UniProtKB/TrEMBL annotation:
Keyword Signal appears in the UniProt entry: yes
Keyword Signal in annotation: yes
Name of this protein: Redoxin domain-containing protein
PROSITE patterns referenced in this protein's UniProt entry, alphabetically: THIOREDOXIN_2 (PS51352)
PANTHER family the UniProt entry points to: PROTEIN DIPZ, THIOL:DISULFIDE INTERCHANGE PROTEIN DSBE
UniProt-listed InterPro entries: Redoxin, Secre_tail, Thioredoxin-like_sf, Thioredoxin_domain, Thioredoxin_ResA/DsbE_sf
All residue ranges annotated as the Thioredoxin domain in the record: 24-179
């Protein structure tokens, strides 16, 4: 009875908080994580993004009937089978992340406890059951206040709450990553040159009359620099930054016009 009450309290805590804060803003930068799945394999989110994959995150709970109904549509499993590793496209990865602190191996396999069934059977993508501070951090970092909560993350690390979609609708988001954010066309608009400790951005379009911003983030998604882009050229120095990988984006209000990984 006590365990059942804990399930109910945890579920209520997530759902009830949905009115006080929302999910991560669409188009914002996804935070990184390193987590180990139920089979003992460790995964780092940014590794998959840097490999050019669009990553789908399914935050769920084993006792959640809505989660179970969507799970049984096999939309994510079919997405992974058709477009994931060892396929012709190999441009997708999927994670299912269980967030109820009371659930463990038995609940995943539908053996005992408060669970909807066997979540492992027929699931070909990694399933993760973070514990302790790792679970708390994931809930906070990804603003999880109800489930199922399903995100799609583009290779440039922009995140979108995509929801319970069909396989075709899920995969169509890849075109959003490449086209709707203007990345392909804007790559022809912007030129980025690195010279020692200086980065110069040049544009074939005059942005004097627009709200355009240059944003530089580190590999963990932390914003390092933010400055206005006006006219056709902007220069900034990287002298104070540590050597490593960074991500440069050019924003025009809520739209990302340009995205590039740079090495300092």
């Amino acid at each position: 009875m006590k365990k059942t009450l804990n399930y109910l309290l945890f579920s209520f805590g997530l759902v009830a908080s949905s009115g006080s804060y929302g999910q991560l803003q669409n188009g914002s930068t996804a935070p990184n994580f390193t987590l180990t799945d139920i089979n003992g394999t460790t995964h780092t989110l940014y590794d998959y993004l840097d490999d050019g994959k669009t990553v789908y995150l399914d935050f769920f709970a084993c006792h959640c009937p809505t989660c179970w109904n969507y799970h049984n549509t096999h939309a994510l499993a079919d997405l992974y089978t058709t477009y994931g590793p060892n396929t012709n496209t190999n441009d997708v990865f999927v994670f299912a992340i269980e967030l109820d602190p009371n659930n463990g191996t038995n609940e995943f396999y539908g053996i005992s406890g408060v669970t909807q069934g066997n979540w492992v059977a027929g699931t070909n993508y990694p399933q993760i059951n973070p514990e302790g501070t790792a679970r708390t951090a994931i809930i906070s970092d990804f603003a999880v206040n109800y489930y199922p909560l399903i995100y799609a993350i583009c290779p440039d690390r922009t995140i979108t709450e995509i929801g319970k979609k069909t396989t075709d609708q899920l995969y169509a988001h890849i075109q959003t990553c490449e086209n709707a954010l203007g990345i392909q066309d804007s790559n022809k608009t912007f030129t980025v040159n690195q010279h020692y400790t200086q980065i110069t951005i040049q544009s074939s379009v005059d942005f004097s009359d627009s709200n355009t911003t240059v944003v530089l983030t580190d590999i963990q998604g932390k914003q390092i620099l933010r400055k206005s882009f006006s006219g056709k050229m902007e220069t900034f120095t990287t002298e104070s930054l540590n050597h490593g990988i960074y991500f440069l984006q050019i924003h025009q209000q809520a739209t990302i016009l340009y995205s590039q990984k740079i090495q300092l």
